[in-house]
């Protein structure tokens, strides 16, 4: 076998080094191609080498030909195994919101979705959330999210810490196609309810869907399933800036308390929910998602003294201990903005609502939804997304005292500017015609608002 001087020198150096060391660093002169075992000017490191058979290498040390039979290989560094707490990630976002009345009875407006709307309200911290999440193991992941900008009911001060999410996903397989989510989490009813306010384009969720699960969360045990490919689509719809709702499976069903987030169970009767949503991806790359959701249960609305048409009374509650029947079904579609987008949802059903004639909270019919159009413009100055949204609702506001009838007709037009991924500003004009469900006699008010929101992500 013919050997080049370069190879012979390499094996000779390696053989001589193995007599006293398990490995050796080799360097080559960039001009002469001479090999060295020490660094120096003009020498380029080839790598760290070890003989596969130390005994054979040592015995071959006296002569270069014997050393040629010793194979060498690079020894890759072995990374330290991560502990489960090293796999957790910390992130968050904050929203600062400003509302300015422009006319009509805007000062008298009240909205469950934004406590900074109304008289003597203007600037406030809408969200201040920190999220801790990650995979503990192949079969367990956790998600914990407190909000530091909450306001307890009836309080004149804000920015209290309150739990939003704390749940675990329990996986049955390596591909994570089957899982159970247990804890306080979002209830899969309504696509916009599932979409994070960090990603949502419009400033508030539509009342028709959000009145079903205010705060979008409850204590629940829910089963989710989706193929691995579809899970990837759900992730892409969020990461690519297309305002996806997140991963809540193609199919989901389970049970939850029904009284809302951070509220104790009040009637010893669980709600059940079912969810189906599928994101199609066309050959052009366009995404289109459709689905349906449904839930049923009994809900106990709080009751208190009210004065309506000169009569003061405290309503009774139909269904006594369990409360009135509470059930809905909804459908949704989302044609993602690539660059033009269109989305809509509609819900029908029945739920707790005050009957002023009978002075009783009974189960009554409800309906409502929204339609939203948007256009995504990507440029060197950031992403611009102009949008317009119309929403309507007629039904009981079950989470408010006495579950008064809520009537909403609202138009919002605005522009979101994502300057950089960490900073975005949304400016919108809103015309609202809605019932003040916060206090009797539950009158309708209408007015115009200028609304601005600054969001920073971290």
Automatic annotation (TrEMBL):
Residues 1-21 form the signal peptide. Gene3D superfamilies: Porin. The keyword Zinc does not apply. InterPro entries: Porin_dom_sf, Porin_O/P. Keywords: Signal. It holds the Pfam family Porin_O_P. The keyword Signal applies. This is Phosphate-selective porin. It comes from Hydrocarboniphaga daqingensis.
């Amino acid at each position: 076998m013919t050997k080049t001087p370069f190879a012979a020198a390499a094996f000779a150096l390696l053989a001589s080094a193995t007599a006293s060391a398990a490995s050796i660093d080799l360097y080559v002169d960039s001009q002469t191609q001479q090999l060295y075992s020490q660094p120096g000017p003009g020498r380029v490191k080839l790598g760290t080498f070890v003989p596969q058979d130390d005994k054979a290498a040592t015995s071959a040390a006296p002569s270069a030909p014997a050393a040629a039979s010793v194979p060498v290989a690079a020894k890759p560094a072995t990374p330290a195994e991560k502990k489960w707490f090293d796999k957790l990630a910390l992130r968050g976002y904050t929203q600062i919101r400003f509302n300015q009345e422009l006319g009509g009875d805007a000062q008298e407006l009240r909205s469950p979705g934004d406590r900074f709307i109304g008289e003597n309200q203007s600037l406030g911290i809408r969200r201040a959330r920190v999220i801790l999440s990650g995979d503990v193991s192949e079969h367990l992941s956790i998600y914990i999210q407190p909000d530091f900008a909450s306001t307890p009911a009836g309080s004149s001060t804000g920015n209290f810490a309150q739990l939003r999410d704390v749940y675990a996903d329990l996986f049955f397989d390596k591909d994570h196609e089957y899982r159970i989510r247990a804890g306080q989490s979002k209830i899969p009813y309504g696509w916009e309810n599932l979409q994070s306010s960090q990603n949502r384009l419009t400033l508030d969720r539509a009342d028709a869907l959000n009145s079903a699960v205010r705060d979008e969360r409850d204590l629940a045990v829910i089963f989710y399933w989706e193929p691995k490919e579809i899970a990837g689509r759900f992730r892409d719809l969020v990461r690519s800036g297309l305002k996806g709702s997140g991963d809540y499976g193609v199919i989901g069903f389970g049970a939850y308390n029904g009284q809302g987030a951070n509220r104790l169970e009040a009637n010893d009767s669980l709600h059940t929910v079912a969810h189906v949503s599928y994101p199609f991806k066309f050959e052009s790359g366009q995404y289109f998602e459709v689905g349906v959701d449904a839930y049923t249960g009994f809900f106990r609305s709080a009751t208190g003294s009210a004065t309506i048409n000169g009569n003061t009374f405290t309503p009774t509650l139909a269904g006594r201990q369990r409360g009135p029947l509470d059930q809905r079904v909804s459908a949704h579609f989302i044609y993602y903005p690539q660059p033009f987008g269109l989305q809509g949802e509609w819900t029908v059903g029945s739920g707790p609502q005050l009957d002023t004639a009978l002075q009783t909270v009974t189960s009554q019919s409800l309906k409502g939804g929204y339609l939203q159009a948007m256009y995504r413009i990507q440029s060197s100055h950031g992403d611009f997304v102009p949008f317009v949204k119309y929403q309507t609702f007629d039904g009981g506001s079950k989470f408010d005292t006495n579950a008064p009838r809520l009537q909403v007709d609202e138009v919002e037009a605005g522009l979101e500017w994502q300057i950089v991924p960490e900073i975005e500003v949304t400016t919108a004009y809103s015309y609202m015609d809605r019932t003040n469900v916060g206090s009797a006699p539950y009158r309708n008010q209408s007015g115009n608002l200028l609304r601005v929101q600054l969001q920073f992500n971290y």
